[in-house]
Each structure stands twice: as C-alpha cells, then as structure tokens.
Amino acid sequence: MGIRMRRAGGTIRITLRGAITPGCGSGSLREAVDRALMDGARRIEIDASGVRFLDAAGLGELVACRSIAARAGAQLILCGVIGKARELLRITGLDRALLRQPGDESVRSLNWRIA
Length: 115
Prior knowledge:
By secondary structure, the chain is of the alpha/beta class. It has helices spanning about 25-40, 55-70, 85-90, 95-100; strands spanning about 1-10, 10-20, 45-55, 75-80. Helix 1 links the parallel strand 2 and strand 3. Helix 1 runs parallel beside helix 2. The longest helix is centred in the middle third of the chain and has 16 residues, at about 55-70. It is globular. The model is unreliable at about 100-115 (pLDDT under 50).
C-alpha cells in the first residue's frame, strides 16, 4: 500500500493507493495516523480513491485508526471509497461511521471520485 500525507492547517490528508490487507502495509496506515496526531492534526482525512482492495482485516485497521484518532480528540473521516470497497463498508454498516458524502459541509473541499 502506498501512503502520501499532506497538511493544510490543522488537517492532514492521507492518500492511499493499493490494498488495505495484512501483509500489504496495513500497519503503515496506523503509523501514518499516529504521525498525523503527533504533528497536531485535529482532523485526518483518508482519501481511499486509490484503494483497489479492502478485506475484513483492512476494515479492522480503519476502525482502529478511527478509535486512535477519537482518543486523541481528533476527527477521522474516510472519503473517495469506490467499487467493492464501498460495498463492503455499506454491508458492514461502517459506511455510516467512516464515510462522508459529497455535499457534506465538513468535506466540501475534497475532490470526489464517484463510482
């Protein structure tokens, strides 16, 4: 999994590419969230538009990252999820907890890729 981080004020955007699965660098996502929090991020946006595969362990990693951010008093949102990954989030009900939709006031500045 490829990870790129960009800061804009108190927000850090983490852009993912590839797969979020064990053995594909899923632990590095947690490290990126930890780094963002240590850098003082109050809001972390995870852009998953480049994620081509997400499994149950990857879902667990996203939920763990959300919990870590919440304990630190930061907001974590997931955006740009497409295809099968989006369907998996919907089936598990995690879409309501993690995703933000186009038009949501808190994410108007994000670029959206609609499936």
